[in-house]
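Budget justification note: compute hours in this period were largely spent on complex prediction jobs such as the one shown. Inputs:
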Amino acid sequence: MPEQEDANGQRPVRAALDVLSSTRTSIVLLVLVAIAALVGTVLPDHAAQEYVYGRTWFHVLLGLLGVALFASMVWRRRTGVAKAWGLLAHVGILLVLAGALITLISAERGIVVVVEGREEASFHREGADPFRDTPVPLGFSVRLVDFRLRFYPPAHYLCVIRANSRPLRLRVRPGRALDIPGTECSLTDIGLSPVGVDGAPPRPGRAELRAKAVWPSSSEDLRLTDGDAVGSPWDPDSGLLYQRVADRVKEFESEVEVVEHGQVVRRHVIRVNDPLVHKGTRLSQADYDRRGLRWSQLSVSRDRGAWFVYAGFLAIAAGLVSRFYVGPLLSRFRSARGARGGDDGAL
Amino acid sequence: MGRFEILLDASLYAYLLSTVVLGVWFFWRRPRLWHAGSGLLAAGLVCQTAFMIARGAVSGRPPFANTFETLVLLAACVVVFFLASAALYNTKPLSPLVALAALFVTLFAYLIMQDEIAPLMPALRNRFWLLVHVVFCLVSYAAFLLAYIFALAFLMKDDRHAPGATFVAALSLSGVAAGLVILVLVRASLLTVSRGAAFGLSAGGAVLLAVALWPLVGWLTRRLGIRERLPEQSQLEETLRRAVSLGFPFLTLGIMTGSYWASLAWGRYWGWDDKEVAALVTWLVFAIYLQLWYTPKWRNPWNAWVAVLGFWCVLFTYFGVNFLLGGLHSYA
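Corresponding output:
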């Protein structure tokens, strides 16, 4: 059925589509999203979630951007290879927005705390009250076999503490001489040896620094246990402190087993960059028992929107690279062969 | 000071000499001066590349894990892209500004350098994603820095926009100067302030200095005939568009790889972290620039201001978020 004209002789649907698909509309929407995001960045995290990113108006704004892009792709159909690349980038943006919408509607996030030697078959939703809200089944059980921290090898420092200025922190390495900047003093014959062991992680032991200290007019044997300080001979207002840093965490590791129907079907060590993905559920390392290393907290995520987002980003990048580089190259190639080609028009 | 930091020293001196020589060449166009200046620029690049390779070999990881290391990469990328653009599009007259930018970026890196190569925190212990994510982002930042220089040069050639562009140029120079002074004072323990306060002091000092310097910069620009010595406006507009066309796909890839890496490390591809959102805002601003550029009836000098705004967003993403806001990327 043909569209009815209004009193001014215009067709309202066509006019609306013209407005929605116009460059002006897309720019206005991009500006509005940018301003909203900028406001969200400046606000504290919780306020940004509460007043910007979590609000319906922000989602509607993103939705309008998607609708405007879709309208421009359909209503202002463009032909030509160069336009097709631009179209691919637009399709990519739509995929990202679609992925974000799927995440918003259907993604499930939460946490599961697993104690060593025990199994957990459910998780608590993000923000839920663990005492009142019903936990969500994982679809399988996860058993924590062991949680451990791995540390970098200890590093040794000599801190030169001076009045009214920042301490100077110098790395100490066994067997190497150490000149103290700004003075004529140095340490030679540096040796490091363990002193006692208190056993409790994350500080597995202590160490002693032995060195021959060469001062401007004398030298002496220096012995410092980590945390000890001595006055410096060249300046009454300064001192030397030996520090042993052994608590630099290299990795958090949750060794887990996936149990289904009483059978262990999978073993995995969850690390920060190596989550466990099982049956569409992703378990990532989130937190741990800082006192006894007896339990591990894993974040749980089920999100089908993520792959739309990645596909969208890839489409945007492919569309842009083709539009900016491949397209003009092909166009130049065709021109060289006498064929018609162009590089104008909208992105 | 380690063994290979001498390479960073060498690059600093090379960029300093290059700035001087290319500055002389700007007013006295002799081919030998250009060859010497661009050769020094290339020598600085070689030294920085060797420094990054040596640091990567010693640390056993990609040398792009903190602000110092990424600044060195940024300076190197800026020089690579500029030398390519000078060869392809004749942007040579902008070479003193680019050499000065490379010098300042390296100087900032030098001032925040720590003797020790700190071990990586668990979230960063993924060499592949560390490499691709940081390189993609820094390549885009370098392209946008060049776009900023091209945009300001383009605006300076325009009678209506020249005063505004001169002010922004003065603001940029005073911002860098104020930042360097604050950093030197903090390093020398003459000033003890938080990172946020240092950033605020630099910004406030920059605005005051820019207001004071604006008339002087304007007068010098006219007196020395700088506008006349810059490339043609159409050429600048085209190189500006090409610089944005280089940076934009890389920024897209940087956001994409960051999003995938975040899903591995933090369990979600997007967490509205300050750095993520700031990068998104930068992306949106350059998307607006490209949308305007590809709509012929809307192409006008105002578009160049969008590119200028885009680079300010890059600065906010790169430094502002780290210094003022923190968040999940506060180590970067």
